[in-house]
Each structure stands twice: as C-alpha cells, then as structure tokens.
Amino acid sequence: QEQLVESGGGSVQSGGSLRLSCAASVHTANLHCMGWFRQAPGKEREGVTTISRNGRTSYTDSVKGRFAISQDNAKNTLYLQMNSLKPEDTAMYYCAADTRWWASCGPSLDFGYWGQGTQVTVSS
Which of 10, 17, 36, 116 would staple 48 via disulfide (CB 3.0–4.6 Å)? Predict the structure, then answer.
C-alpha cells in the first residue's frame, strides 16, 4: 500500500516562502503522476500542480510563476517550492500519487493515493 507523508507546512507572512515535501513509500520513478492539491476552509479541493513520470508539469493559474513542483527519485520525495506567498494560499496542502500509466496526468485525475496533509497559513 502506497503511503505519502507530507511535511514542511507552517505559518509565514505574505511574501514569504515555504517548501513542502512528500515522502513516498515506493519509488517515485515508478509513479505515473504526482501532484499537490489544497483545500481552504469552506472551499472545494483545488489542484495546484502535477508532474508526470516524464517530467511534464501543470500549474493552476493562481500559482504560476510562484510555485514549482519537483521530485527527487533518489529520495522518493516530491517537493513544492512556494514563493511570494499570499494570504489566499492559506490551506491544507495534500500530496497525491497514481500508478496508472494509461491515465492522463493532471489535476482532474482521480488520484489513487493521498497523504494526510500539511497546513500552510499565510498572514498579511
């Protein structure tokens, strides 16, 4: 059973940076698609960014130019570098992964594995 464990969340002021990590229990090189999602109180879960096995990435418009997804297959870890943080980035951030090679990698994918989440709070 695939396990994902997020870390790196915290509280920062507007304009600050955080780097989230997601440690996977299996080799990330074997995962077809990984991504970061977030959910703010009272709002629906939102796909933030995804990365496919071949390195293709996608970002939601609100984070383009500020956030960057990457993975270190040697460490089986997915990262989310978040710069120029804004109060509207405040949310619980979740790591997700999927192994189905035939599925299209992107925020609309019904990911099979999820982490427990890490809280990010940005104050103005």
Answer: 36
